[in-house]
Amino acid sequence: MPFGCAQEEFDCSTPAALLDSVAKVANQGKFERLPEFIEIGAREITYSDGVTEASAIGDVKGKLSEMLGQLGRVAKKMKERYAMEIAKESKAATKSADRFGLGPMVQGIVLDPFAFLAEKRQHLTAEDLGDGTAALLWRNEPALGGTIALVETDAGWRVTVPVELVQGQEFWPQTREEWAVVASMMLAVQNSLLDFERELDTGKFKTLQQATERIGRLLGESVVVQSVIYASMKQNTKPASPTE
Description:
The protein is of the alpha+beta class. The protein has one domain. The chain contains nine helices and six strands. Strand 3 (about 135-140) and strand 4 (about 140) form a beta hairpin. Helix 5 (about 105-110) packs across helix 9.
């Protein structure tokens, strides 16, 4: 799918409009649209298979969009299926304790993963720096220590991470294979969400807690496996230490 803010309902013409659009998308549950508002700087690199870094990043954004779309569908079904439990805000539902103690966090991620974008919009502002960039502020202070900014592109304003801050970081993808693994991470999470949705549709889970524990395990397993693969690749591509 193409990325952009050309659609009338999501205005990105100014930094403030971008923040409003992000909040609107989150509030509407159209999570698959969120990657449209992200700009990741690509180097002018073409890998051995002919794929450019810009294309590899585009593939990651596409997979992220598909994964977030699936997350949105699962969240909607969960809210409908367990509406009474959620409305009561019962102690069991809010704690959702499992053996790993991740219940509350998983429940929040699944039921309303981007609620903060809409709920906390009033605390987010943008200071236009006049050079095609804007500082993202949280309660008038640099958001996340200034590691997230806004940038003006041909298609409007976008959220970005300054390239100079991430290119030298160990975690940042540097090769075609590493970008492919990042895309695979998105696909693995999407597949886990699909598996969970199928089980949810059968009525397998009688309570919100049961559903939360199951999806937490599925997501945890897929993320761990892909993270191990990625970490192994990064380790193998580290330059050898100079020998004396």
